[in-house]
Amino acid sequence: xxxxxxxxxxxxxxxxxxxxxxxxxxxxxxxxxxxxxxxxxxxxxxxxxxxxxxxxxxxxxxxxxxxxxxxxxxxxxxxxxxxxxxxxxxxxxxxxxxxxxxxxxxxxxxxxxxxxxxxxxxxxxxxxxxxx
Length: 132
Fold this sequence. Notes:
single chain
């Protein structure tokens, strides 16, 4: 078994696609519209299944905002340098909500950014060849 994708409901699909592609460097992998059932899906990622997990953005026609549930935490993305990633996010118009630095009680360097719908994305510094 493996994780295939994570789905987020968004209030403005193009705004969210722009954030994940421009600010976080993902690629729009595919998009499908279903007017009969009044929704559009967009799949994004740093690669596609089965090699990579994807992010599914769901836009339900006419719904511009969702309440953030208290159970939602965040999506985590590996970056080679969390400090540089924060600067890149800010330069591209993104919102850094926690600057890069060691996690409380540990040594791992993390940061948090927020997408246009309020979802948190954790940037975790890893030595892998990952770019943002």
